[in-house]
Amino acid sequence: MKTIIKKEFLKLLCMILGTVVLVGCKQSLLNEKKDYSEAELYRPNFHFTPKKGWMNDPNGMFYYNGYYHLFYQYYPDSNVWGPMHWGHAISTDLISWTEKPIALYPDEKGYIFSGSAVVDVKNTSGFGSLKNPPMVAMFTYHDAIKEKAGEINFQSQGIAYSLNEGLTWTKYEANPIIKNPNIKDFRDPKMTWDAIHQQWIMILAGGDKTMLYGSKNLKDWSLLSNFGKEIGAHGGVWECPDFFPMLIDGTDDYKWVMLSSINPGGPNGGSATQYFVGDFDGKTFTIDTSFAKDVKEQKGLWIDYGRDNYAGVTWSNISEVDGRKIFIGWMSNWDYAQKVPTETWRSSMTIPRELVLIKEDGHFIVSSKPVKELQNYIAKTIKKESLKIDKETVLIDKGLVNLSKLDIRFSLKNLKKDVYSFSLSNDANNSIQFGINKKENYFFIDRSKSSKITFSDVFANKISKAPFTGDFDKMDIRIIVDKTSIEIFYNNGKTVMTEIFFPDKPMEYFSASKANTEYTIENVIINQLNFN
Question: Is 476 marked active-site?
Fold first, then answer.
C-alpha cells in the first residue's frame, strides 16, 4: 500500500510541476523498485513444476494415445520432503503440462518411492486385455516404521495397474512382488520391454551397484545379474537407474546405455547422473572396453555436469511415435533442494531432452538436445550474422526480448588459449556467468553473484566445471533460459550444464565479455519463446 501511495504522489507532483522537471519525474518513477510475487520471479514459464508442495524425482513416464505422462515424487502437504506420493501430469507435446490428481498414495506397506511404468500392449500381466492394454507401474515401498526400528529390509518393490490410461491405479493384491534381499538401499525400479531378447527387464539400485531382473509377465521377476560395484563414481549411493538400447548415431549398430544417479558424488558436488555404454546378452551387461577406459580416466562420465539435473530417466513406449529416447531430470540438488527460496512449491524438472548416442574417434558419448517441440513456441526470432568481440558487448537486452524465456544459439570462432565468458544480468547487479576456459580446459557456470545464495553454504561456494580434452578453435553453444534456470548445451550437447539461480529481479541483459584476444560470435539466433 505504501508503494502505491508513493507512486501516485510522484505522478501528481509531475503534473503540478509541469514539463520542466518531466524527465526527472519519469526517472524517479522508473527507479521505483517493483515488488515481485514469488510466482512472477521464480515460477518457471515452461519447465514443469507442481502448483504447490514438494517435488523430486521424475517417475513412471510413458507415452500412450497422444499423451506423454509424467509422474513424480510428490509431497502435497509441505514444501520439503515428506511421505512420498506419485504426482501426475500430462502433455501432448512435452512442453505444456496439465497437472492431474495424485496417482499413488502411501499405504500400510510404506511410502511410494521412485519407479517406472510401461504400457503392457500384449497384456502379458493379465491385468487388462489386448483391446484395453493395462499400464503397469512398479515402485519402491519404503517402510518408515521398519527403517526407524533399525531393520535393514525396509524397501521392497510393488506394482499397480491402470485400465484408464493412467488416470487411476489399482495396487496389486500380492504386493510386494520383490522382497528385500537384505540390502539397505534397494529401490527405484525402471522397467523396459527388451524387444531384442523378447522379455521384460527391470533395473534397480542396490546401494553400490545396479541389479538387473527379467520377467515374462511383469509380476514374477528373476535376478539376472549385477553391475557397477567396481566401476564408475562411488562417492554416494546409486539411485534411479535406467537401461535401454540405442542406435549409434548415423549407423545401424546399437549399444546398451545404463544411467545411474548418485548422491553425493557428482562432479561438482551433491547429486548427479552418470552413464555407461556397453553390450547386453539378455542377462549380463558388459561395459564397452574403450568406454571403461574413459570412465577410469575421467572418473565418471555424466549426462549433465551442472549441479541441477538429477534422477533423470526416459519415457517408455516412445517408439510408437518416432523412436526418440526422451529424458527428463529433476532440476535441483540434494545439497540444498529443501532450502531454495520458494515457499508455495519447491523444484521443477529440466526441459525434456532427446538423448543421442555418438561414436567419435573411438569414444562413445551420450549427447543431449532439447526436444524439437520447443520450436513450436517461438514467438519471434532475432538474428545476428557475425560480431567481433573486443570489448564487453551486450548481445541482447530487455528492450528487444523478455530474457525470462529464451532459446539462444550461437557459434564461436577464432578461439585461443583464453577465457571466454558470457553472462545474464540485471540492473540490480545480479548475474550468472558461464563460458569456456581454454587455459585450463573446462566449461563453467558461476552463480556466486546471482543474489540469493546464503540459504545454503554450498549453493554457490565454487564455480561448476565440466572438463574437456583436445583442442578446438570453434564451438557451438545453445542456451535455454527460463526465469531462474539456465541449461547450456556445449558442442551440440556433448557436454551439458544445468543450474538454477534466484535473482532479485528478472534478468535484463545477455552479454559477451572481452577476452585477451579478439574472437568472433557467428550465427546468433535468439528465439523469444511464447508462454503466458
Answer: no
